[in-house]
Amino acid sequence: MTDIPDLAGRVAVVTGANSGLGYVTARELARCGARVVLACRSEPRGSAAGDRIVAEVPGAEVEFGRLDLADLASVREFAAGFRYDRLHLLVANAGVMATPYSTTADGFETQFGVNHLGHFALTGLLLPALLATPGARVVTVSSVLHVLANIDLADLNSERRYRRWIAYARSKTANLLFTHELARRLAATGADVIAAAAHPGYAATNLQTAAPRAEGRRAVAWLMAAGNRVLAQPAEAGALPTLYAATAPDVRPDSFTGPSFAQWRGTPAPSWRAPWTRDDRVAVRLWVASEWLTGVAYDALKG
């Protein structure tokens, strides 16, 4: 984390910044001088995270912004209340993993709705601030588990058959397809914004244990927690690929950064990705569907 450049005067938004990878990402960006908006669903947890960052990094400039990615009205409210005319960095980090079937406030399958559609809408609504900022970046956090499944364009909301890990993998594939198409559209319009993606490998966060605990599956929660202790790298290390994608000078559009050792742990490095995450035809179809489903049109990137 010592290689992060000086970020004084820059504004960053980090979703899911109250814990885990998002917290570490927000703290380190603030440590290097950025003003960081902690975009979180819970005000008590988000505000507490801000207090912790200031305690760890005296003088850090952080502020809470309420954002519930499972509710497009909340996404619109967050974007409408964004008080800066510039945005240097948007880190789409928040997510849910392997949850039982449920739907968002707008009727979308929760993993697809939160992990992809919520961030798709947020990025589109904040696009004017990003386009107005030289050298801005959008970093979307995907997962190595995207390799488990391509998206199903005929069943984006997993209505025909719901398998929690497949739905998660599809949402993470959607993250990479979004990055691919966003990078293409930005380049086509000559925009000075980099769209990149990252993944943490296997990092110990509450993401693995949240769903089984909420369902009362104590044995699964115990196994997940044990795996975190024995096999995973800490959140401090898991956040490094995101921080690299967000700040390193050599990051390329549509790149995918992850841990160097078997995509599991280690220093940030270019990561392998499934070929279907660079499928232009599917990326365009997902983009069109996402605009229709969210009601958020990227008008500035049409042409």
Automatic annotation (TrEMBL):
Molecular functions (GO terms): oxidoreductase activity
Presence of keyword Oxidoreductase: yes
SUPFAM superfamilies linked to this entry: NAD(P)-binding Rossmann-fold domains (SSF51735)
Cross-referenced InterPro entries: NAD(P)-bd_dom_sf, SDR_fam
Signal sequence region: none
Pfam family, one: adh_short
Gene3D superfamilies xrefs: NAD(P)-binding Rossmann-like Domain
Keywords per UniProt: Oxidoreductase
Family indicated by similarity: Belongs to the short-chain dehydrogenases/reductases (SDR) family.
Protein name from the UniProt record: Short-chain dehydrogenase
Species: Streptomyces shenzhenensis
